[in-house]
Task: inverse folding
């Protein structure tokens, strides 16, 4: 039995993604400590500036709440940005201390392992040969550790890397000794020797930065005559602050242990690449650690058990598939990152016309793309594009863990009663949005994956998968945040109006439309490049044709609502008609194929909306003053922006469905007819009841 190349280097590997998640989260946690210190030291001047700006705004614009709010936002911009800068000092402190740990911790370990002694030439030649086989350009230097060293370990990177070997390795058979050396060089091949120490350094750096805030509060209590350090620290804020910080540190410790065990698996896979695992079976299947470990010992262990290591060597795909623990950790940390970046963006962009929502959403979307989307894609790639029921049922767990992250985040300290950012509805909307994006990401993975199974993956493939997943997750998070914002602003029928203001009537419709076009174009190319039966291509094509023809003909031939000169109602109904065409096409594909229909829906539904909008625009070409601007920014932009909402909402439940109907000619032939009938019904209903969804 020979192990294949089922590993992935860098941050896109299972272990590398976990490193990224933890490093970013720990670094940003320091920003909240910086914000608290700002409020303690510079809070009075901040409050004075805000009050002064509010008074000027009320005097200058007594009759316009909008102009008054705009003036106050611009006036308070400098002090808001100062708060963000001080907050980022906390992140910088965590990062700098973590980098110091990157230098100190390995050297401390070397001192404990010393004095070190150079190995004989034959051992160094072994390391050089193994490094060349694994593609490590600069082989490590092998040294003997002192008597206390019982296990081999590797430090450093590049030409400065060293593998410290226990002296007892000389007593082992030659094949077993080589296996140990291969494992340590495997860590260098996996590229995790620096990240592991940076992660440890950040974990040790965060507690002192978090403790700096209560220390400043105690100093403030000592300096002010009307209070004392005990009175300052007895405020309930500090108890909640400590509890949330403790939860973050515990989660970080658990993830660190998960990383440590995962890196051992990746080193094993790198070491055994292209070789038989029989030697490793004899090596790991021999003497087991004495005694039975408790659950606490297993949780704290840096190394997986021998049985688990053998299981991964025999079936490397088990390392690629995300586990329930991975899912819970990624979702929770993504919500923490979303809130941190949204808060910082809100401060940095204060006084400008920019919104903080896309900053937080796209940051967390990239986080989820690396931590979740790539793992799902790798698993799907290894299975030749087959659907995975086990991964399907992790989508709700990912969404619910993101909702839990909104509750336990450090930034909500002192604001628990007001709920998460943008209100309590976000606890429902955000999990559904994450769940929908995860289902769409899994559908894209099935489109992209080759039927030949696991293989070495080109950088182009990696970039495409990360980009598409970042757009899907980032777009879904952005929609959830905007929807909850609009939900507060809408008074009559808040849910429908919030959906319209988030979708087709959004101020950011153009940006969302461009993102959906990018996803659709990549999905279409993925579908065309993969060898598929002819009916697989006809199936979405017939659905698009049925939706476009039926929607356009019904809209142009049956118009009792929109008056000929009511151009506002006309273009809005045209936008909604194009949106109906795409939505009906997506729903029909899911009805005919189950969850497997989400993949074709990624490119077929946008195509149906764009083609329908183009037909309606061409029919009224002479009526528009700037026809090409209307086509791009109004009709296509509005319909695709609304379609993003539909696709995310549809994918949340549809991603849990099984697959059916693949390869059946009756399903393929009936797709166009079913879609056409549904489109006619949808557009007729829109024509009759369209007044309820028009913004005049």
Result:
């Amino acid at each position: 039995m020979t192990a294949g190349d089922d590993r992935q280097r860098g941050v896109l590997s299972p272990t590398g993604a976990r490193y990224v998640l933890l490093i970013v989260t720990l670094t940003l946690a320091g920003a909240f400590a910086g914000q608290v210190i700002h409020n303690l030291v510079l809070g009075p001047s901040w409050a004075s500036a805000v009050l002064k700006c509010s008074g000027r705004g009320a005097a200058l614009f007594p009759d316009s709440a909008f102009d008054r709010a705009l003036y106050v936002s611009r006036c308070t911009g400098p002090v808001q940005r100062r708060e963000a800068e001080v907050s980022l000092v906390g992140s910088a402190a965590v990062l700098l201390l973590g980098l110091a740990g990157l230098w100190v911790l390995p050297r401390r370990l070397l001192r404990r392992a010393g004095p070190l002694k150079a190995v004989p030439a034959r051992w160094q030649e072994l390391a050089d040969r193994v490094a060349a086989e694994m593609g490590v350009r600069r082989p490590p230097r092998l040294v003997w550790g002192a008597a206390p060293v019982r296990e081999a370990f590797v430090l450093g990177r590049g030409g400065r890397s060293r593998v410290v070997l226990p002296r007892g390795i000389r007593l082992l058979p030659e094949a077993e000794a080589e296996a140990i050396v291969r494992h340590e060089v495997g860590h260098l091949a996996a590229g995790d020797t620096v990240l592991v120490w940076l992660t440890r350094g950040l974990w040790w750096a965060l507690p002192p930065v978090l403790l700096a805030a209560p220390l400043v509060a105690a100093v403030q209590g000592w300096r002010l005559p009307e209070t004392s350090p005990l009175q300052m620290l007895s405020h309930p804020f500090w108890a909640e602050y400590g509890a949330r910080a403790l939860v973050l540190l515990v989660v970080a410790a658990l993830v660190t242990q998960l990383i440590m065990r995962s890196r051992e698996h990746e080193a094993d896979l790198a070491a055994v690449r292209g070789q038989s695992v029989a030697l490793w079976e004899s090596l790991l299947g021999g003497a087991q650690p004495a005694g039975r470990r408790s659950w606490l010992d297993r949780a704290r262990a840096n190394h997986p058990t021998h049985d688990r290591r053998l299981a991964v060597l025999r079936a490397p795909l088990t390392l690629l598939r995300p586990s329930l623990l991975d899912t819970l950790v990624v979702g929770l940390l993504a919500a923490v990152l979303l809130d941190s970046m949204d808060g910082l963006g809100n401060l940095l962009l204060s006084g400008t016309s920019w919104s903080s929502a896309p900053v937080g959403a796209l940051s967390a979307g990239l986080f989820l793309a690396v931590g979740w989307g790539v793992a799902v894609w790798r698993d799907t790639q290894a299975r030749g594009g087959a659907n995975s029921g086990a991964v399907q049922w992790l989508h709700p767990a990912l969404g619910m863990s993101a909702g839990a992250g909104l509750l336990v985040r450090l930034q909500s300290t002192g604001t628990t009663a007001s709920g998460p950012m943008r209100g309590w509805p976000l606890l429902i909307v955000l999990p559904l949005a994450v769940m929908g994006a995860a289902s769409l990401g899994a559908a894209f993975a099935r489109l992209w994956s080759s039927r030949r199974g696991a293989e070495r993956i080109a950088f182009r493939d990696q970039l495409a998968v990360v980009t598409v997943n970042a757009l899907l997750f980032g777009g879904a998070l952005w929609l959830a945040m905007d929807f909850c914002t609009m939900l507060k602003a809408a008074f009559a029928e808040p849910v429908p109006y919030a959906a319209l203001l988030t979708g087709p009537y959004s101020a950011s419709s153009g940006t969302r439309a461009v993102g959906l076009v990018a996803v659709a174009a990549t999905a279409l190319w993925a579908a065309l490049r993969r060898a598929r039966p002819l009916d697989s291509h006809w199936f979405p094509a017939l659905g698009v044709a049925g939706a476009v023809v039926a929607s356009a003909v019904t809209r142009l031939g049956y118009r009792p609502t929109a008056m000929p000169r009511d151009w506002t109602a006309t273009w809005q109904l045209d936008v909604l008609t194009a949106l109906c065409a795409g939505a009906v096409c997506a729903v029909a594909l899911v009805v005919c194929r189950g969850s497997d229909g989400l993949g074709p829906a990624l490119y077929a539904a946008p195509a149906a909306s764009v083609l329908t909008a183009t037909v309606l625009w061409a029919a009224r070409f002479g009526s528009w003053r700037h026809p090409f601007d209307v086509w791009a920014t109004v009709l296509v932009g509005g319909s695709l922006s609304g379609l993003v909402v539909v696709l995310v909402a549809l994918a949340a439940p549809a991603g849990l469905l099984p697959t059916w109907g693949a390869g059946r000619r009756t399903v393929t032939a009936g797709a166009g007819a079913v879609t056409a009938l549904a489109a006619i019904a949808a557009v007729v209903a829109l024509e009759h009841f369209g007044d309820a969804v028009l913004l005049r």
Residues 10 and 191 are 6 Å apart (CA to CA). The chain has a mean pLDDT of 81.
